[in-house]
């Protein structure tokens, strides 16, 4: 089982991102689960969401304390939230930032992946909403869900031109982090 | 059809498949999404029913009392403060023998205000004369919906029922679920055709004044109906399995109980996490098992005795507290065993209050505490678990 923790700010769509990963994993014929850290969310406040992907039915329902992957949608969260808490040393953390990964000086043995998702989102969507762009980065950096399935999940949620713009943002992020 | 959806949407769809004639629900976190999806179905013409907008939970259940007495299949859903506001009406519904079905989303009761999950709300209503069945996951909550209509509407039962599902944990989770096939539901759940209905042409009265020469007999009949529902719940569970291919074991489910020395007892969404913890512990050689309670009211005394008789120690894990005397399920279980030959020590833990997260680590700690009881005897019979001394 792979466990993913999302850090975002209220209104950035962290919960939607977790849901879309669950839908994408299901498209890949895996079991999945996504849920928010049930808070009293306000726009701008730090929020968390979680997702699990597995080959077997998922029974556990606690929050995720030792994630395989962490996705940080807003680099300013690094100052207020311990985003690497419990992150497995062999895991990965993907951060939306215009800085280099090494300059972030994160206290973790896990691989740090920096992606300027805000720039990509502004270019492709015309809005600084990065949740779907970060999904593309997650997909490219981890391979835990296929790009096809992420695209299907996106189109199940966003139709028409908005769907197409999101796919373009995802593709750019996916290619940007793939090494 | 199998799909990843939010728990609340899945429940709304299950309700739609059961074709209630009258629905009256008042939104309250974390039950709101159920209301939104049901009202959307009604607005889109996907669910043909009378949808009554009300100003409170008191009115939602009150309006259903009238509708149910007039012969309608009726549904509502609430949580926490909403259930508390319904308290008076709960007893009226059961006393009038009206088979209303309610999805009770479990949430803590104020004060202090908490929107998060525990099971204090439903446990506080345990004497209200409603059947209470607790769901482990979204699929079970879906599948319970037609089962409860069938149980409640049986002429020998005629008792309202609650499908209890943990707030947020199950209402807001996205996970794969198998949707109910509407045509199969129609086959499984025939239309509600009550023998006694409010009808101007043939006047009757429901819930009328009963002086002391009658009241006891009403309560006796309610009590007997609830007893009969034990068998009915099992029958309907089997019948559901035959039609839909998914079974849950009726009143309880025994998990990994063969040769279990430590037996855990719990209900609701915590069951999944406990099963996961048990598999880990079993791999390490710890003989631990679980009895999941599905039906809390009626209380499955005989099934529990059979499932738990060989354990060395029983640890009840529940999300409620009875101020002044431990927690409700612990007390019930000890009561059930007192006049039996089973002398197994029983201890209890109140966990997850107001949404405190419970993971495998916490379950392992409870198993460790329970194991000590089987060696050294009971030290603490009841514990409010995971109290932070620094916050006191």
UniProtKB/TrEMBL annotation, chain A:
<protein>
    <recommendedName>
        <fullName>Pyruvate synthase subunit PorC</fullName>
        <ecNumber>1.2.7.1</ecNumber>
    </recommendedName>
</protein>
<comment type="subunit">
    <text>Heterotetramer of one alpha, one beta, one delta and one gamma chain.</text>
</comment>
<dbReference type="InterPro" id="IPR002869">
    <property type="entry name" value="Pyrv_flavodox_OxRed_cen"/>
</dbReference>
<keyword id="KW-0560">Oxidoreductase</keyword>
<dbReference type="InterPro" id="IPR053412">
    <property type="entry name" value="Pyruvate_synthase_PorC"/>
</dbReference>
<dbReference type="InterPro" id="IPR011894">
    <property type="entry name" value="PorC_KorC"/>
</dbReference>
<dbReference type="InterPro" id="IPR051626">
    <property type="entry name" value="Oxidoreductase_gamma_subunit"/>
</dbReference>
<dbReference type="Pfam" id="PF01558">
    <property type="entry name" value="POR"/>
</dbReference>
<feature type="domain" description="Pyruvate/ketoisovalerate oxidoreductase catalytic">
    <location>
        <begin position="10"/>
        <end position="175"/>
    </location>
</feature>
<dbReference type="InterPro" id="IPR019752">
    <property type="entry name" value="Pyrv/ketoisovalerate_OxRed_cat"/>
</dbReference>
<keyword id="KW-0670">Pyruvate</keyword>
Automatic annotation (TrEMBL), chain B:
<dbReference type="InterPro" id="IPR053390">
    <property type="entry name" value="Pyruvate_synthase_PorA"/>
</dbReference>
<keyword id="KW-0560">Oxidoreductase</keyword>
<protein>
    <recommendedName>
        <fullName>Pyruvate synthase subunit PorA</fullName>
        <ecNumber>1.2.7.1</ecNumber>
    </recommendedName>
</protein>
<dbReference type="GO" id="GO:0019164">
    <property type="term" value="F:pyruvate synthase activity"/>
</dbReference>
<feature type="domain" description="Pyruvate flavodoxin/ferredoxin oxidoreductase pyrimidine binding">
    <location>
        <begin position="15"/>
        <end position="237"/>
    </location>
</feature>
<dbReference type="InterPro" id="IPR029061">
    <property type="entry name" value="THDP-binding"/>
</dbReference>
<feature type="domain" description="Pyruvate:ferredoxin oxidoreductase core">
    <location>
        <begin position="260"/>
        <end position="363"/>
    </location>
</feature>
<dbReference type="InterPro" id="IPR050722">
    <property type="entry name" value="Pyruvate:ferred/Flavod_OxRd"/>
</dbReference>
<dbReference type="Pfam" id="PF17147">
    <property type="entry name" value="PFOR_II"/>
</dbReference>
<dbReference type="InterPro" id="IPR009014">
    <property type="entry name" value="Transketo_C/PFOR_II"/>
</dbReference>
<dbReference type="Pfam" id="PF01855">
    <property type="entry name" value="POR_N"/>
</dbReference>
<dbReference type="InterPro" id="IPR002880">
    <property type="entry name" value="Pyrv_Fd/Flavodoxin_OxRdtase_N"/>
</dbReference>
<comment type="subunit">
    <text>Heterotetramer of one alpha, one beta, one delta and one gamma chain.</text>
</comment>
<dbReference type="InterPro" id="IPR033412">
    <property type="entry name" value="PFOR_II"/>
</dbReference>
<keyword id="KW-0670">Pyruvate</keyword>
């Amino acid at each position: 089982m792979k466990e993913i923790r999302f850090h975002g700010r209220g209104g950035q769509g962290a919960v939607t991102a977790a849901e879309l990963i669950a839908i994408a994993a299901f498209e890949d014929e895996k079991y999945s689960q996504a849920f928010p850290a049930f808070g009293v969310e306000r726009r701008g406040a730090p929020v968390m969401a979680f997702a699990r992907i597995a080959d077997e039915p998922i029974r556990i329902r606690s929050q995720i304390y030792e994630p395989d992957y962490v996705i940080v949608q807003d680099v300013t969260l690094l100052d207020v939230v311990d985003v690497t808490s419990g992150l497995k040393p062999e895991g990965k953390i993907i951060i939306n930032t215009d800085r280099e990964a090494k300059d972030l000086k994160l206290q973790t043995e896990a691989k740090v992946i920096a992606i300027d998702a805000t720039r990509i989102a502004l270019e492709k969507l015309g809005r600084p909403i990065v949740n779907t762009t970060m999904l593309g980065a997650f997909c490219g950096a981890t391979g835990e869900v296929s790009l096809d399935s992420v695209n299907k999940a996106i189109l199940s949620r966003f139709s028409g031109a908005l769907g197409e713009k999101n796919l373009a943002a995802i593709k750019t992020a996916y290619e940007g982090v793939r090494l | 059809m199998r799909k990843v959806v939010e728990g609340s949407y899945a429940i709304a769809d299950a309700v739609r498949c059961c074709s209630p004639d009258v629905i009256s629900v008042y939104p309250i976190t974390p039950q709101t999404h159920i209301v939104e999806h049901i009202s959307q179905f009604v607005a889109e013409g996907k669910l043909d029913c009378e949808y009554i907008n009300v100003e409170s939970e008191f009115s939602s259940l009150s309006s259903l009392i009238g509708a149910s007495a007039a012969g309608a299949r009726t549904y509502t859903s609430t949580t926490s403060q909403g259930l508390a506001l319904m308290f008076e009406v709960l007893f009226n519904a059961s006393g009038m023998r009206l088979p209303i079905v309610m999805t009770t989303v479990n949430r803590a009761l104020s004060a202090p205000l908490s929107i998060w999950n525990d099971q204090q709300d439903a446990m506080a209503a345990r004497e209200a004369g409603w059947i209470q069945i607790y769901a482990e996951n979204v699929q079970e909550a879906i599948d319970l919906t037609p089962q409860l209509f069938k149980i409640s509407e049986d002429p020998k039962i005629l008792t309202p029922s609650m499908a209890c599902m943990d707030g947020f944990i199950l209402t807001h989770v996205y996970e794969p679920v198998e949707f109910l096939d509407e045509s199969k539901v129609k086959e499984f759940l025939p239309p509600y055709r009550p023998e006694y209905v409010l009808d101007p042409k043939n006047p009757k009265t429901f819930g009328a004044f009963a002086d002391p020469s009658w009241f006891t007999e009403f309560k006796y009949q309610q009590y007997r109906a609830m007893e009969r529902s034990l068998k009915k719940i099992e029958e309907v569970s089997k019948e559901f399995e035959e039609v839909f291919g998914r079974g849950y074991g009726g009143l309880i489910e025994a998990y990994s109980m063969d040769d279990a020395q430590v037996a855990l007892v719990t209900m609701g969404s915590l069951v999944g996490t406990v099963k996961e913890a048990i598999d880990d512990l079993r791999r390490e050689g710890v003989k631990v098992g679980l009895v999941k309670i599905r039906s809390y009211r009626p209380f499955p005394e005989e099934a529990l005795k059979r499932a738990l008789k060989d354990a060395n120690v029983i640890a009840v894990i529940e999300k409620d507290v009875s101020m002044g005397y431990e927690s409700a399920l612990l007390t019930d279980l000890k009561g059930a065993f007192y006049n039996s030959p089973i002398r197994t020590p029983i201890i209890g833990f109140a966990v997850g209050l107001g949404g405190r997260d419970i993971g495998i680590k916490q379950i392992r700690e409870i198993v460790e505490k329970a194991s000590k009881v089987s060696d050294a005897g009971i030290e603490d019979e009841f514990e409010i678990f995971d109290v932070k001394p620094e916050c006191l």
